[in-house]
Structure formats: structure tokens, C-alpha cells
Write a structure and sequence with these properties.
By secondary structure, the chain is mostly helical. About 50% of the residues lie in helices and about 10% in strands. Helix 7 crosses helix 8 and helix 8 packs across helix 10. The longest helix has 23 residues.
Length: about 230
């Protein structure tokens, strides 16, 4: 007040009015602050706008580790050893036995032909020859052709194998056509019958046969073919 009085005295009215206004403003603001809590008014205004409280993370939410699913180990089934595996282990060369089934195994004939070894390829070759030489003959005539071939195998004047006898030069004119010949079941049956029962048609060392006149002695005719013994 002393300053105001002094200013008034000095006739500085304008400055006095400004200073007086500032003093009144400060007094009003101080009074307003006491009556109203400004911070509460601001907070309530924000809450009203958002209408939703802001979630504050708790200590447990911050510090608790996130649990991850733990894979439970499953037991691996043990391989079962079968009887087949045991058999193989006892015979480590079992694979060789399987391969042997593809081998052209030989069998022996019976009766007078018991010492002759006949392979599957020999059996087929005999059936092919029967088809070519006696395909139109009776079952008896077909068996007789087989007996002639086997009699030659036993004869010292001829090769000692079925293949050697059939392919001997100058003996069977149909030999060059046998590879393309497809025998019938009856042809195979004639071969098998002779191998199983021996000689049942020709009695003796019959080594010749022909559709016409043949060599040898004691010739006999079966169907359209002639058969002769060795002299």
C-alpha cells in the first residue's frame, strides 16, 4: 500500500492500476484453488471420456513366468523279432537257398533210364521234339519217340546227353525249329510218363524211328511211324 500511495503521489496512475489488478488476481486465484480441487476435476473429466478404467498390471502379472506346455515323452515301441528273422539268423545264407530255386535242377529217370539226368530244359526240349515229330500221333506213339531219344543217350554210339542226341548233326530234321515250338500239355505228359515209368512201349534198344522206312531190325509200326532196334 505504501508503494501505491507513493506511486499515486508520484502521479503514476497507470502503473498503479496494473499493480493493483495483479494483486487482486492473485488473491482471487488463491481463493479459487482452496474451494476447488483442480486435479480431481481433471481426473474425473478423463474418466468420463474414456468410461473405462486403465488396467494397471499387478506385480504377480509382471513377475509370473508364462507357462508353456511340456511335451510328455512317449515310449517308442521296441521292434518285435519274428520267427522269420530268427530263422534267417540261424541260417545266414538263407538268401542262397532262395536263389537255388531258380537253378535248372536235374532229376533222374526211372527203370532203364534211372542213370539219365534230366533237367527242366531237357524236359522242355523233349516235349518240343515230340510236338514236331509226333504231334499228330497217339499218346503211345509220342511216348515211343521219347524212348528212342533216351535209348540213344544210353547207347555208346550216340552223345550221352538229351540235348546232344537231339542236336546231333544229320539225325532230326526238325531240330532247327525246336526253339520256336510250343509243346502241348499232352507232349509234356508223354515225356513225364516215360521218365516216371521207364520204357513201356518199346521192348529193347530201339534207336531208330521214321515216318517211312527206318533202319535197324525188328521194326514195328505205331500209328504212322516205324521204329527199329540197333543191329
Amino acid at each position: 500500500m505504501k508503494k501505491i500511495i507513493k506511486l499515486i503521489i508520484e502521479k503514476k496512475v497507470v502503473q498503479c492500476i496494473i499493480l493493483f489488478s495483479i494483486i487482486i488476481g492473485v488473491a482471487i486465484f488463491t481463493r479459487f484453488k482452496k474451494d476447488f480441487n483442480f486435479e480431481n476435476i481433471v481426473t474425473e473429466s478423463i474418466s468420463t471420456v474414456t468410461q473405462e478404467p486403465i488396467p494397471v498390471p499387478t506385480e504377480s502379472a509382471i513377475t509370473s513366468p508364462v507357462s508353456t506346455p511340456t511335451a510328455t515323452p512317449t515310449s517308442t515301441p521296441q521292434p518285435t523279432i519274428t520267427q522269420e528273422v530268427n530263422t534267417t539268423s540261424q541260417n545266414p545264407k538263407n538268401y542262397q537257398l532262395e536263389e537255388d530255386t531258380n537253378i535248372d535242377e536235374s532229376i533222374n529217370g526211372n527203370g532203364k533210364y534211372k542213370n539219365i539226368k534230366v533237367s527242366e530244359s531237357d524236359r522242355k526240349l523233349l516235349a518240343q521234339l515230340v510236338k514236331r515229330e509226333a504231334g499228330g500221333e497217339s499218346f503211345k506213339g509220342q511216348k515211343a519217340v521219347v524212348e528212342v531219344v533216351l535209348n540213344r543217350v544210353l547207347d555208346s554210339k550216340y552223345p550221352d546227353t538229351i540235348r546232344g542226341v537231339i542236336y546231333q548233326k544229320g539225325q532230326f530234321s526238325t531240330a532247327s525249329k525246336l526253339s520256336s515250338t510250343k509243346p502241348t500239355q499232352e507232349n509234356y505228359d508223354a515225356v513225364d510218363y516215360v521218365l516216371e515209368h521207364g520204357a513201356t512201349v518199346l521192348n529193347g534198344n530201339y534207336i531208330f524211328f521214321s515216318a517211312g522206312k527206318c533202319g535197324g531190325v525188328d521194326r514195328i509200326k505205331i500209328g504212322n511211324q516205324w521204329f527199329g532196334k540197333s543191329e
